[in-house]
Amino acid sequence: MAVTFKKYHGLGNDYLVYDCIKNTYELTPKRARMICDRHFGVGSDGILVGPYFEEDGIHVKIYNPDGSMAEESGNGIRIFARYLKDNDYVQKKHFVLHTDRGPVEVTYLNENGSRLRASMGKLNFFSDEIPVTGPRREVINEEMEFGGKTYKTTCVSIGIPHCVIPMDEISREKVCSIGKFSEDAPCFPNRMNTLIMKPIDEYNIAIEIHERGAGYTLASGSGSCAAAGVAYRLGLASNKMTVHMPGGELQVEIEEDGEVLMTGDVGYVGTTTLGYEFLAKLRVLE
After folding, report:
1. Rg of the chain over CA atoms, in angstroms?
2. 73, 108, 147, 186: least surrounded by Cβ within 10 Å?
3. Closest by alpha carbon to 207, among 247, 255, 147, 177?
4. Are residues 224 and 255 in the same domain?
5. Residues 89 and 136 in one domain
6. pLDDT one digit per residue (tens) for the chain, 286 residues
7. Distance between CA 258 and CA 176 in Å, rounded?
8. How many domains does one find in the chain?
9. Which residues lie closer than 8 Å to 211 by C-beta, 6 or more apart?
10. Are residues 245 and 272 in the same domain?
């Protein structure tokens, strides 16, 4: 029994696509974690499983590299949409893809589907819906302590929780030093993605990213939308901006009703078929 994955990346944020129609092998959290391992497995920032065809349309499930499930992923959405077009599951220019968070409108912007726009939903700053512990409030510019240091932090959900910390200078080392404490902080009951953000000008911001269940990543679609939303809310940028990350750039637009549109590219890497020796190791895992 061959077990095959297609590998894509969105600005260096790489995912394996596991086609549940063409493959019959059962993925589990432990197996997903081993497959994502960059030293002993195939290596990736997660696995996209689908397409599941249901009455309301096409669905996808998303594994984080630690085996946990993600409600949504901005880069994952674009990657899976590119896969659907590459494999003739979708022929229309516009379609709706369903994640665990809900429906996402996707638009192909070129013929091969490598450039896409996705409607990521509305920004939500209310504590009980992000969630953040404490009384119901908008979590904006609150002082929060991570690893013994205090930061002015704004928290927002766009289906996935993010805390965003504006800084004059940002780096991988800085976001990792914060993220290792903020990800599982007691005030974040569902764990937290952490972004440090440098405003550049009215139309540009730069971010570094530490994702729950994944750690440091080169790019994040939902993180870009969250950071852009915070920059706009704090008056640091306009409603249309480019988000710069180590892996590349995304264009983000915040509409009047709070809906966030994300535009970016997806690259195809290749096909991986698991070897019999690796499959034997996977079989002993639940």
Report:
1. 18
2. 186
3. 247
4. yes
5. no
6. 789 999 999 999 999 999 999 999 999 999 999 999 999 999 999 999 999 999 999 999 999 999 999 999 999 999 999 999 999 999 999 999 999 999 999 999 999 999 999 999 999 999 999 999 999 999 999 999 999 999 999 999 999 999 999 999 999 999 999 999 999 999 999 999 999 999 999 999 999 999 998 999 999 999 999 999 999 999 999 999 999 999 999 999 999 988 999 999 999 999 999 999 999 999 999 7
7. 29
8. 2
9. 64, 193, 194, 217, 220, 223
10. no
Q: Look-up: residue for tokens 């766009």?
A: 158
Could you tell me the residue range of the domain that residue 64 belongs to? 4-114+267-283
Alpha-carbon distance of 129 to 136, in angstroms, equals 9
Q: Which residue has the tokens 């004059």?
A: 168
| CB 100, CB 87: distance < 8 Å | no
| Segment holding 193, helix H or strand E | strand 193-201
Return the closest-CA partner of residue 18 out of 54, 61, 56: 61
